[in-house]
Specification:
Blueprint (H helix, E strand, L loop, with lengths): L5 H12 L11 H46 L2 E2 L8 E2 L3 H8 L1 H32 L6 H13 L2 H12 L5 H8 L11 H29 L3 H9 L4 H12 L1 H16 L3 H6 L9 H10 L5 H24 L9
Antiparallel strand pairs: 1-2
GO biological process, one term: transmembrane transport
GO cellular component, one term: plasma membrane
Protein name: Glycerol-3-phosphate ABC transporter permease
Length: about 325
């Protein structure tokens, strides 16, 4: 119906300007009871979380973060292990690590040991994996034999190789004397001692890299290698053009784990060279400075802090920049 009079028009406009009342929430005993049940459910969820996660969080705080913070404090002290008193020295322990000749030697040995063991383990592991990837008789036994050293105790491995490298009673010395040569003094010469522990560490971790590379090779589709063979690509061309690019994630994973493992290698170094004669990597230096003849707990704490920061930086750089160049299928 059309509104023609002025009074009718004003009445319609007033009706349109009148606000619509908002719906009022339900109130009363039912709503209060619903709120109480919701609060009890929330409290039960928080209580369950605290009961399940609380012990783990407490253990992590007690055995990881508290020692880490305490170690930061100890690194600023001139403190002998077991002494009742300690003198604050600020950053003097860090300055000594980066400026002294012994500190420079620790970094040199650490870089040589880490680089040689990581590259040696990964290159030899890849070659072994390429052989194990073929259809050869006794392949399962060969895989077990290659991987077995990795699960052996580092102490046992070090003791066995000490007898092998012994210049007088070792197998290596007997073999050299059979050809009219004398065995070098592996445990006295610092350069030969470092070479000796590198050989042993590569032998122990070779199986780990081989098994991981073998899993990566077996994940490559056979269609690609068969098509390359039909196009005339030989094994070497297939390795560099197909297999290695597709093994990018495997190489990235192994580079991260092997670098972290090599920088924390201790048991073989401690057993084969107890005094760190040319084999004092950064983690071995922590032990020698704190529990060896020096008893310098404050200086050892400073080295531990630096090692933590180095490992953290290496992992962050690899995850931030190197992983970008890895192509996942």
């Amino acid at each position: 119906m059309a509104v023609t009079s002025a009074a009718g028009i004003d009445e319609v406009a007033a009706t349109r300007r009148t606000p619509v009342p908002a719906p009022t929430p339900p109130s009363g005993p039912d709503e209060a009871d619903r709120r109480r049940r919701r609060r009890r459910a929330t409290s039960r969820r928080y209580l369950t979380f605290v009961l399940l996660a609380g012990p783990n969080v407490a253990l992590i705080l007690a055995f990881i973060y508290f020692p880490l913070i305490s170690n930061l404090y100890y690194s600023t002290l001139d403190w002998r292990l077991g002494a009742r008193t300690a003198d604050p020295v600020g950053l003097a322990n860090y300055v000594e690590l980066f400026t002294s000749s012994r500190g420079f030697d620790v970094w040199r040995v650490t870089l040589i040991f880490t680089g040689a063991t990581v590259i040696g383990s990964m290159v030899l592991g890849l070659l072994v994996a390429l052989v194990l990837d073929r259809n050869l008789p006794g392949k399962a036994v060969a895989r077990t034999a290659v991987f077995a050293p990795y699960v052996l105790s580092g102490v046992g491995v070090g003791l066995i190789w000490m007898f092998i490298f012994d210049p007088r009673i070792g197998i290596l010395g007997h073999g050299l004397r059979a050809f009219g040569r004398t065995s070098p003094e592996w445990f006295i010469d610092p350069q030969l001692a470092l070479l000796m522990v590198i050989v042993v560490y590569v032998w122990k971790n070779l199986g780990y890299c081989a098994v991981v590379f073998l899993a990566g090779l077996q994940a490559i589709p056979k269609d690609l290698t068969e098509a390359a063979s039909l196009d005339g690509a030989g094994p070497v061309r297939q390795l560099f053009s197909i297999k290695l690019p597709l093994l990018g994630p495997t190489v990235f994973f192994l580079s991260v784990t092997c670098i972290l493992s090599s920088m924390q290698a201790f048991d073989i170094l401690r057993i084969m060279t107890p005094t760190g004669n040319g084999t004092n990597t950064i983690i071995f230096e922590i032990f020698l400075q704190s529990f060896g003849a020096y008893q310098r707990a404050g200086y050892s704490a400073a080295i531990a802090v630096v090692l933590f920061l180095v490992l953290f930086a290496i992992t962050a750089i690899q995850l931030r920049y190197v992983e970008r160049k890895v192509h996942y299928r």
